[in-house]
Design goal:
mainly beta, 15-stranded mixed β-sheet, two-stranded antiparallel sheet, elongated
Length: 188
């Protein structure tokens, strides 16, 4: 009896002192001042996290490495990397039917470069560009039927220059067609 009691005591102590293999992101952790802590502790959590179709890692309380969230057990919703809590590099998002939804890149937590969106049926929805998290450069949008919806340019997050917009039937939508400066329509 004594060897079993000793073994169980050693096992219990080793489990308490060992780092966590994985905790539930939604039930075992809490966020305080931008950092994640295991509940009832004051030390930012480091380790793998799971929970409701989510896998990822935390380092010193910040999201780190690859993060994957799924619609279901086998269907990815989004996948991307984080560094020091911020999104970095290529990120991809999928509709619940498995079709690609969005793809683009982040730098230091902000959208950067070309981003592409798709309708749930796989048709191109729109393309635009980002600079330091703001829309910057050409944007082209399409209706679900594949017809051109709208096109123009952004400068630092505001519409700039000539824009043209079309209704679903291909006729010009005058309300959103014209010349823009600093996001405001200045002429038809």
């Amino acid at each position: 009896m004594k060897p079993i009691k000793t073994f169980l005591t050693i096992l219990f102590i080793s489990l308490l002192s060992a780092p966590s293999w994985s905790v539930n992101f939604f039930t075992d952790l809490e966020e305080r001042d931008g950092l994640y802590y295991k509940k009832l502790t004051d030390v930012p959590f480091t380790g793998k996290v799971t929970g409701y179709n989510l896998t990822g890692s935390l380092k010193d309380g910040k999201q780190e490495g690859t993060w994957i969230f799924k619609w279901s057990k086998d269907q990815i919703w989004y996948k991307g990397n984080r560094k020091n809590g911020k999104r970095v590099g290529a990120w991809v998002y999928y509709h619940d039917n498995g079709q690609l939804w969005v793809k683009g890149n982040y730098e230091n937590g902000k959208k950067e470069g070309a981003w592409v969106w798709y309708w749930k049926n796989g048709q191109l929805k729109y393309k635009d560009n980002y600079k330091n998290g703001k829309k910057h450069g050409a944007q082209v949008l399409y209706h679900k039927n594949g017809q051109l919806f709208r096109k123009g340019n952004y400068k630092s997050g505001e519409r700039e220059g000539a824009w043209v917009s079309y209704n679903n039937d291909g006729t010009v939508d005058k309300k959103y067609t014209g010349t823009f400066k600093d996001g405001k329509k200045i002429s038809d």
